[in-house]
Structures are given as C-alpha cells and as structure tokens.
Amino acid sequence: MQTRTLTEQVSLQLADEIGRGRYAVGDKLPSGRALAERYGVSAAVIREATERLRAQGLVRTRQGSGCTVIARTGAQGFQVPLDVGLDRAALGAVYELRMDLEAGAAALAARRRDAADLQAMQAALSALERHLEDPVQGSEHDVAFHLAIASATHNDHYRRLLQYLNLQLRQAVTAARANTARQQGLARAVHGEHIAVFEAILAGDAGAARDAALRHLRNAAGRLQLDLSLTA
C-alpha cells in the first residue's frame, strides 16, 4: 500500500471537513499560515492542498483574499489520478497532453503577453536561476514559470488547466530536477531551455515560442526516460 503524500493527506482532510459542513459554502478557510501550523506542514504543502480543492471545484481562490468554499462535493469532470507520477505509462500520456497544451500556450503568450506578464516570467526565471541545484525550491519556480506563460495567454481556461496539470506533476518535476542536480552542468542546460522559451515570447515570435516549449517538454520527458515515441 502506497503512503499518501502530505499534500494528499491535508487536501483529503480539508475536503472531508467541507463535506461534513465544518466549513460551509460561503465560508473562508483559515489562512495558509494557520493551516500550516494546524497540520504541521510547510506553506508549500498548504498551497498545493488548497489548489487540489480548487481543481475539484470545492473552493475559489483569489490573491489576497484566501480560499472561499463554493461547494460541499467535488466536480466529477476531467481529472488526472493523484498517483500519476508513480505510473510511467500514465505519466508519459500526461506529458503528451502537456506538450500540445503548453506549446499552444507559449505561442498565444508570444502574441498576447503584456509588460506584467513578461515581468512575472522574468521573476520566475530569476528565482529559478538562484535555486538551480535545489530540487524542491527549483521545482516551485519551474512550475511558476510555466504558469506565468499560461497566464500570459489571457485565456483563463489555459491557466486553470495547466495549473492543475502542473500540480499533479509536481512530484515528477521534483524527481527530474533531483536527477538533473546530480549531473554536472545539466541544470544550467535545462535553464537554457526555459530562457529560449522566454526569449521567443519576449520577441513576440509565436512559432519560435511553440517550438522552444515543445523542445523543452520533449527533453524533460527524455530526462525522465518516458517513451513518447508516438509523439515523434
């Protein structure tokens, strides 16, 4: 029997409390700091747990105003299994999906990005460069960069779906970055792939942005030794 991650444990407990009415529809959840203290976990775990609740349709999150309960039972729509990172075939299938979605998002971002979008991408890249050898912090900023691209499409459906997929793949991203950190010079090469995507978006070149994003994700899948032969 596989042990649940801290994120799964916290999100399941919160979902159960919402379902039992401890937090009614319209109520706000306690602050991230209060939840972290209550469960004895990091702020990052709380962010991931509440994002799972949002993806399930249980809460709405807004910057600066926290999480508000909007339903007692989760939506039964599209979902990626929580243990996808443990199943190589399933992980490969999700990477195929990511390649099409994120390549398209990068192309749209190149056409639609504004100054604030570029600043968010640059901030994520700068933070990532400072933590290239740290798998945990590096993963946080890696995901933030991809989400900044999704936000730059100015299509909220892209942002929400890619935010959900990146959350589910956080475990795999962390594993990939841990592997990268063990190989001399590889972390810097991977960072160069991110920079290539950013520079294409900065230049407003949709085709180059699409190609750079696709190349980065194919390389990422290769570093995880996933078989994506059907996408070649």
UniProtKB/TrEMBL annotation:
A Pfam family hit: FCD
Gene that this sequence comes from: lutR_8
Segments forming domain HTH gntR-type: 4-72
One MF annotation (Gene Ontology) recorded for this entry: DNA binding
Superkingdom classification of source: Bacteria
Protein name: GntR family transcriptional regulator
Key words, A-Z: DNA-binding, Transcription, Transcription regulation
InterPro entries: GntR_C, TF_FadR/GntR_C, Tscrpt_reg_HTH_GntR, WH-like_DNA-bd_sf, WH_DNA-bd_sf
Record Gene3D superfamilies: GntR ligand-binding domain-like, Winged helix-like DNA-binding domain superfamily/Winged helix DNA-binding domain
